[in-house]
Specification:
Bound molecules: pyridoxal-5'-phosphate
Largest sheet of chain B: 7 strands, mixed
CATH superfamily of the largest domain in chain B: Type I PLP-dependent aspartate aminotransferase-like (Major domain)
Helix content of chain B: 40-55%
Distance between the termini of chain B: 38 Å
Strand content of chain B: 5-15%
Largest sheet of chain A: 3 strands, antiparallel
Number of helices of chain B: 17
Number of helices of chain A: 5
Radius of gyration of chain A: 15 Å
Distance between the termini of chain A: 26 Å
Oligomer: heterotetramer
CATH topology of chain A: Sufe protein. Chain: A
Helix content of chain A: 25-40%
Order of helices and strands of chain B: EHHHEHEHEHEHEHEEHHHEEHEHHHEHH
Structural class of chain B: alpha/beta
Number of strands of chain B: 12
CATH class of chain A: Alpha Beta
Number of domains of chain B: 2
Strand order of the largest sheet of chain A: 1-2-3
Largest interface: B-C, 75 and 75 residues
CATH topology of the largest domain in chain B: Aspartate Aminotransferase, domain 2
């Protein structure tokens, strides 16, 4: 079902954990739907110096979290803002269609943590105003 | 231990060697169509009728009451739609439970769209239907009660005989989805007052894609699959001879020494439950502790999600299943776990390990050892566990 | 010649060795449920999807348009009821022909009881549907045309492309029962304007009890079997992995060298027809002489009854079939033979010999030799032949 | 499907043929239903001296005809009148349910030939008055 890359990141997730004095913390998803991602950022000089995550969720949620943290580590805020869910999925060599929402959650977790940072430090971040963290990202399987 | 440990026997089972052997001649040598006049055809016919006897014997039924279908799902659909369409003029009300298999639930939902009214009975925290609620749900228009024999997720066994009695007293047809029960628990359709019963071979070491609907003599239902005269004109389609032979052999083997097998299996099950409960905290057994299928273990590990758990078990060559939404592609986790009162979060962290006669105590120990490590690892990653620890 | 001569390939066929070999691992080793998360499950899933590709390729379809069922009959039922129930609000009229298989005819009759209106088109003496009659039958309320690709008894092939064109122009869904055609004639669903197509593996050396419904992308129909999420939630039931793999392999083999195979087979067929016609009198070929399935021979021998003929052939180790009522348990002989204008008496004396790539010219000669003797013997016993001789 | 006895009588039917100067000839069934039985009797002194048949029909129709002729050959008219379809079927070691009508036809063929004899020679035969040779002897397979 999953690519080797997904399995590799799932079995050996990068950057698991918390950052005690994080500059931005974001949590998205909810337990009802089966996935919660929490992301911690350490930001210095507009650069993401460190990032950690904790995730309750399926294999692709954990792999997406891991990959997302890898993608933004050491990057500027602007670069991090440009990481889309597609980029996360592609970096994982793809996700099954039914699991694409995990990559969406990962993108949202980054943005949510950045929003927290922007509020805490009163920094304006381009593109964060119209972000929607609603949960309606699941594929519904319809039966007639 | 490098062998694959298979503990998902409620999902499907390997075909037993003896069963496959019985099937083999019917592919390339004895390939005749049972409806044909010539000898090659008669041989197939005889084989089909022998299997029908084997099924009848296993259920305490008459062979005229046994109809072969292509799956448990087809049997469920046929039973429910067949009665609904046939008795439409008598009434439009069907009673079922909230914890049925989707083959029953989605069929009922479809019938609702067609003007039928369906009552979905609650279950208690063990997953048992309340007989009083059942009695109170019966109306003048009730034409069918369909309640599963044993639940596929949590293993809880329903009071089938009592339900059958209630149905009989009220002159309502009673169907039971016994897909998980046949081959695992003693069944006598006459004794249990069952009118219709579904079973599926791949749950008891027979092939996939073959099932049975038992129809008590005198019960009339519309066909689901119309066409040729097979199955006494009640279910069309050239008979799947090889699979029917396999089903016959498998049910004979599965019901042959049921009592002894189940004593061993229940002991294994209870040992697995006991070890999990003693070695892992924040764990909950789902389903009734004693009135449950001899091979079924279902536990919820709080703060973690089921699919991750399964993947990590798979990495350790252990096969199990979960009621997590993520394994089914649906939004909500198992409707069964929600119906017995679990919150969404706990339901997501459920694990079903379903044992067969081929599992061993040694495997149990290996699995528990691995589980301890995996659950801990996933909890360390979980933001929910972090909160609990913070609160403590 | 002591070998069994099998000439009833339209009834069913032996599974090819390569097909059985492809299936075998999926019974005892690779038994995982395709819906399962772990590796054993994924392997099964991959196998099912490979078979889906093989079917899609054989039909010129996309793999998303291929749905596995448990038989040709199920595919027919699903197609017809699925469209009827889904489009009920658009209309209630269905057009079919008088020579369809019972899986279509009895489904239509059932729908008539439920308020649908069905037109049964006539066929000419060769068994071909009249396109003008078809056009004239179309009403505002017509929601479905279902016409078989090739007839199972007399082998006549219908003008499917033209029918598809008419359906398309009138925005009516077009289903074709291609159970006899797939593996025997070239089929490209896109080119033929077919919306829904039924096939069954056991007609082309695959296993019994597995079929396909092709559903053109965008065509919506109600489920026949509701339940789990298998087959993209359109057809419930744990996948019959082994049989699906067998179907995939069989269709690949059957359609691989179709042109060459059919040239050989048609020549054999024509040789058998020619020899029967030249050596036996009072004989009539049924079905179109050229627009017919490459392996189909159907002849009526006057004054004798089909079942006796089959039994005597069987005594000579030859397997064939008949449109006689006595072989079907019905009162009337084949509805197909009556529809092409045969009287009851002649219809009773019909014999179908359906050839496969495994038959030989040597077998043909043996069969004709035996036929000559058997037909003569039965005529000597027949009070009808006595009369004819008296009149001469 | 058939018993060995049925197959034996089908493959080697006794008494096939016609009797030129028969004392009684009976024909029952019709081609529409797929079976016609014609029976010829030679009767002397109330004894069936010879019997022949011709049958258009399935295996069990031919076997039933053959068995019926054997059962009445050399018997008195009264004995022949007592041959029921059940007796014919039993003598064949049974017939499939769907083929029982063939034995009915055989019984009727005997009676029809005897009726012809009784008319021709103006002999009254006990039990022939209320015989019904209607064709409604088939089992209908019902589908719901
Ligand atoms: C034309 C046709 N349609 C449908 C069927 C039914 O197929 P199955 O026996 O697989 O249900 C058959 C064969 O029996 C057939 O020849
Ligand atoms: C309780 C129950 N009912 C019905 C089914 C459906 O059986 P099948 O997969 O043979 O269609 C299953 C298993 O999948 C089951 O566990």
């Amino acid at each position: 079902m999953y690519s080797e890359k997904v399995m590799e990141h799932f079995m050996n997730p990068r950057n698991v954990g918390e950052i005690e004095d994080a500059d931005g913390v974001g949590e998205v998803g909810n337990a009802k739907c089966g996935d919660i991602m929490k992301m911690y950022l350490k930001i210095d000089n507009g650069i993401i110096q460190d990032v950690k995550f904790k995730t309750f969720g399926c294999g692709s949620a954990i792999a997406s979290s891991s990959m997302a943290t890898e993608l933004i580590k050491g990057k500027t805020i602007d670069e991090a803002m440009n990481i889309t869910n597609k980029a996360v999925a592609e970096a994982l060599d793809g996700l099954p269609p039914i699991k694409m929402h995990c990559s969406v959650l990962a993108e949202q977790a980054i943005k949510s943590a950045l929003l927290d940072y922007s509020k805490k430090y009163n920094v304006h971040i381009e593109g964060l105003d119209d972000v929607d963290f609603s949960d309606d990202h699941h594929d519904h399987i319809e039966e007639e | 231990m490098s062998k694959y440990i298979y503990m998902d026997n409620a999902a499907t089972t390997p075909v037993k060697e003896e069963v496959l052997e019985a099937m083999l001649p019917y592919f390339t040598e004895k390939y005749g169509n049972p409806s044909s006049v010539y000898s090659l055809g008669s041989e197939s016919k005889v084989a089909v009728e022998k299997a029908r006897e084997q099924v009848a014997k296993a259920l305490g039924a008459d062979k005229k009451e046994i109809f072969f279908t292509a799956s448990g799902s087809e049997s469920d659909n046929w039973a429910i739609k067949g009665i609904a369409y046939n008795r439409r003029n008598k009434g439009n009300h069907i009673i079922t439970s909230k914890i049925e298999h989707h083959a029953v639930l989605n069929t009922c939902k479809y019938l609702e769209k067609q003007g039928f009214e369906v009552t979905y009975l609650n279950v208690d925290s063990d997953g048992v239907v309340d007989l009083e609620e059942l009695k109170n749900s019966i109306k003048d228009t009730t034409i069918l009660i369909t309640i599963m024999f044993a639940n596929n997720e949590i293993g809880t066994i329903q009071p089938i005989k009592e339900i059958g009695q209630i149905a009989k007293e009220n002159d309502i047809v009673f169907h039971t989805d016994a897909v998980q029960a046949v081959g695992s628990v003693e069944i006598d359709v006459k004794d249990l007052n069952v009118d219709l019963l579904s079973l599926s071979a791949h749950k008891f070491h027979g092939p996939k894609g073959i099932g049975v609907l038992y129809v008590r003599q005198g019960v009339r239902l519309d066909n689901l699959i119309h066409g040729g005269g097979q199955e006494r004109s009640k279910r069309a389609g050239t008979e799947n001879v090889a699979s029917i032979v396999g089903l016959g052999k498998a049910i004979e083997l599965a019901t042959g020494n049921l009592e002894e097998k189940n004593k061993k299996l229940s002991a294994l099950r209870d040992s697995l439950i006991e070890k999990i409960e003693s070695k892992i905290d924040y764990v909950k057994l789902n389903g009734h502790r004693t009135k449950r299928l001899p091979g079924n273990v279902n536990v919820s590990f709080q703060f973690i999600e089921g699919e991750s758990l399964l993947l990590m078990l798979d990495m350790n060559k252990i096969a199990g299943s979960s009621g997590s939404a993520c394994t089914s592609g649906a939004l909500d986790p198992s409707h069964v776990l929600l119906a017995i009162g679990l919150d969404h979060e706990t339901a997501h962290g459920s694990l079903r390990l379903s044992l067969s006669e081929f599992n061993t105590e040694e495997e149990i120990d290996f699995v528990v050892e691995k589980l301890v490590g995996i659950v801990d690892r996933l909890r360390q990653m979980s933001p929910l566990y972090e909160k609990i620890k913070g609160e403590k």
